[in-house]
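User: Some background: our group keeps a shared notebook of sequences we're curious about, and every so often someone picks one and asks for a predicted structure to add to the entry. Today it's my turn. The entry only has the sequence so far, pasted here. Could you supply the structure so I can complete it?
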Amino acid sequence: MNFYALAADSMVFLHLLYVSFTVGGTFLILLGAILKWHWVRNRVFRLIHTIAVLIVTVESLIGVWCPLTVWEWKLRALAGQNVENDISFVGRLIRDLIFVNLPSWAFTLMYVGFGLLVLVILIFVKPEKRKIDNRGRPEQLKD
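Assistant: Of course. Here's the predicted structure to add to the notebook entry:
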């Protein structure tokens, strides 16, 4: 396997991690709200998660391809691979997990719906507020 093929497989794995973070994070936030897990209200986690979801939502609304997909395709071309046929078993397995054959409007509808769901969850499962001590410094929150 050449360097570009390995880089393309790494890129598709990174894409799987991104999808897992956005979808799995949403599921864990909902589950954590029910089970009263404090960490799902962490402000930094929630900000990063919300931004990650909204990036995909905005990309779909303006008709931009996901950069991770574009980079993978370019790396596969540099490796002399056809994206659909000449890739490794692992690369094909990961692609089969995250890519389904639907019309582009269906993806836009799903991404916008998912983005709206994450914003609604943000309203109802609020991130923690930072407490300020009497000297104006952030206090450490206790579990």
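Suggested note for the entry: Residues 3-124 form one domain. The chain has a mean pLDDT of 90.
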